[in-house]
Specification:
By secondary structure, this protein is an alpha+beta fold. The protein has 3 domains: 2-114, DNA Polymerase III, Chain A, domain 2, CATH 3.10.150; 123-246, DNA Polymerase III, Chain A, domain 2 (Roll), CATH 3.10.150.10; 248-361, Roll (DNA Polymerase III, Chain A, domain 2). It is 18% helix and 43% strand. The chain has a 9-stranded antiparallel β-sheet. It has an 8-stranded antiparallel β-sheet with strand order 5-2-3-4-16-15-14-9. Strands 1-6-7-8 form a 4-stranded antiparallel β-sheet. α1 runs antiparallel to α2 (71-80) and α6 (260-271) packs antiparallel against α7.
């Protein structure tokens, strides 16, 4: 194998795929990046057997071939070179020689045949959506995913596609985030998959705010996303996601609207003296007034009041302040609306100017 390439042309795709390379691997090949070349293209592949990232570059190759080299070492070498550096990459006698100016690096290699590949995807359904739309969908829901719940199906993001709609739902059992966006999915029934946490985090890291199209493929065991010469493939969580419609509170009857940023500031002030472990605060709703109270094991107390638009029943409810702040931090809307029935029921948060997202927070006893 032999080719020449500019530093930036190689560095950008390397940085894109490096997230699939685990630092500690039981299989040596998983620490490597697979470099596969044809006469006019170079393909970089990294995997941890859960996700696979593939980036393709269009360049002229002097001598095509396949090889794997240590991924992080190659990345560090590229980073260390000057911005206008030209890299000569040659493979001889199972060694990869990297030359740039007066610098030379020799890396150990492993055969391309040793590099594991994810199973081939059997496409069930595929559709397209704008890159910025998909990123917004994930940003507004992924924070509610569970982290290490024994209910493994909660440790990911549920994606559901139906006629011209893509929905994302995440829950950790204490709160739920729901968002839906328009897409070109022309489908009669409903398809659901659960994308694991690592796949979600890698996807949102790679997406940008452009209007470029993203191709999404739902498979029986995998989900694949293709955009900008990059392809992410992730295994899916095999499980049944809870019925999110049953979690959505029915008409609460008591509706409060408030300035989002003012409420966020009031919650942050109150949370300073909340219990550091449970993060519970008390919310008291009275006519056009909200009172926020916190107390910690040191008997320190916080009491913050804010004017709101409210004319319902007097209600006192406890909840995790972090859950509310997470919801208020994922939007730039000026106004937030909360609907609740009584002190023992979950409450629903929405934004009047963004009717595509809903958030449910369960109460807690203080």
């Amino acid at each position: 194998m032999k080719f020449q390439i500019d530093k930036e042309t190689l560095l950008n795709p390397l940085q894109q795929i490096i997230g699939a390379v685990e630092k500690r691997q039981t299989m040596p090949a998983l620490s490597n990046v697979l470099i596969r070349t044809t006469e006019n293209s170079l393909t970089l592949t990294a995997t941890d057997l859960e996700i696979e990232l593939v980036s393709q570059i269009d360049i002229i190759i002097d001598e095509p071939g396949d090889i794997t080299v240590p991924a992080r070492k190659l990345l560090d070498i590229c980073k260390s070179l000057s911005n206008d550096a030209n890299i000569k990459f040659t493979v001889n006698d199972n060694k990869a020689l990297i030359q740039s100016g007066r610098s030379r690096f020799t890396l150990a290699t492993l055969p391309a045949n040793d590099f594991p590949a994810l199973d081939t995807i059997n496409s069930i359904y595929e559709f397209e959506i704008k890159q910025n739309t998909l990123r917004d969908l994930i940003d507004k829901t992924a924070f509610a995913m569970a982290q290490q719940d024994v209910r493994y199906y909660l440790n990911g993001l549920m994606l559901e596609v139906s006629s011209n709609i893509l929905r994302a739902v995440a829950t950790d059992g204490h709160r739920l985030a729901y968002c839906e966006k328009q897409t070109n999915a022309d489908i009669a029934d409903i398809k659901q998959v659960i994308l694991p946490r690592k796949g979600v985090l890698e996807l949102v890291r790679l997406l940008n705010n452009s209007d470029d199209s993203v191709k999404i493929i739902f498979g029986s065991n995998h989900l694949q996303v293709e955009f900008n010469g990059l392809r992410l493939t992730s295994k899916l969580i095999d499980g049944r996601f809870p019925d999110y419609n049953r979690v959505m509170p029915a008409d609460g009857g008591n509706v409060m609207t408030a300035d989002r940023d003012q409420l966020r500031q009031s919650l942050m002030r109150t949370s300073i003296l909340s219990n550091e472990k449970y993060r519970g605060i008390r919310l008291i709703l009275e006519k056009n007034l909200i009172k926020l109270q916190a107390q910690n094991p040191d008997q320190e107390e916080a009491d913050v009041e804010q004017e709101v638009n409210y004319s319902g029943d007097d209600i006192e409810i406890g909840f995790n302040v972090n859950y509310m702040l997470d919801v208020l931090n994922v939007t730039s809307s000026d106004t937030v609306k909360a609907e609740l029935r009584d002190s023992n029921s979950s409450f629903l948060l929405t934004y009047p100017d963004q009717d595509d997202c809903k958030y449910v927070i369960m109460p807690m006893r203080l």
